[in-house]
Here is the input.
Amino acid sequence: MQKSMNNNQIVLLLWQDMPGGIELLMPERIKNMPKFTFTAFVFRKNRDNASVFKNSNIPVLYGSSNNFVLYLKFLYFVFRNQEKIFHGFNIGPVMLFLLQLAGARNIIYSIHGTKYWKTKLQKLYLKFFWLISIREKIIFTSNSLWSREVFFREVTALTKIQTIYNPINPERFNTKTKNNQSSKKIIYSGRLTPGKNLFKWLECAKSISSTFPDATFSLYGDGPLKQRLINYSITLGISDKVIYHGFEKNIENAYQQADLLLFLSKYESFGNVVVESIFSGTPVIASDIPSMKEIFENFPEFLTLLDNNLENNVIEKIQNLPELKKSAGRAAKKFQTRFSLSRHIQQLETIYRGFK
Here is the structure.
């Protein structure tokens, strides 16, 4: 009986629980899996105490900013909960090794990224830990075919990986009200971090405002680049047209009131925000990177190359905005099946129930 009960108890392993990326998806996932009991072990506590679990009943345990203390706390916690199902999200090979060292029997590792190391030294020791930590009994998943391909190429192809797209609830983002203003409202949603190409985003905003003087720009999200981006807006002379809203809990309202989501990231393993925008009936102009190509495989009109002609390409697409809006409606119907919350939950429950 105890073993059966433990197989309904899931421990979510995260580096942080601040709003953004995979963390934001946790409450929705948990809410729709009532047959399972969840606990979260978060390795690093956020300085501002922001947490996606703040208004939930999910018990959250925190590690430490000191690696040695973190490792000890984690080992002790896993040792005391060996029979439970541990589901790690981008926790890295060292934590995966410690998870097994402490005796965890049921492990899922979800790949939600494409960057594994920054230096040759990191590559040397991290790849070593990957190779000694990957075992046949561990179930690996990826949030896209692209992130799976990168793992095979950069880490190892000696494992099976099941692709389970990120869960997006179409009902939450279903179009209810739209922006009826004559001006063009262009938005960005996501973290304000390197890799999102936000300085180029602002340069595009300046070019767009030259062609469409009534255009306005809004960025939803927080991150370490915020002040630098504000300063760059001033340098470009468009500070009166750009609003920094910070993190928006009800982001569906922003999508529904916008005319366009401009998303020029240099790399992504998936891209929740572009799917959310399409579900809201709001068209997208996204960088022509592999994950975006995968999402918009049947709708290339939403993609643009990150080349020297980027700004002109974006303006040309905006001039064809009515057709992009029609395409968004067609894409939303296709996305209902590919990226639905219900499909994600069904796939995940099958994995959880597979542990004996």
In short: The longest strand covers residues 9-14. The mean pLDDT is 92. The chain has two domains: 2-167+340-353, 170-337.
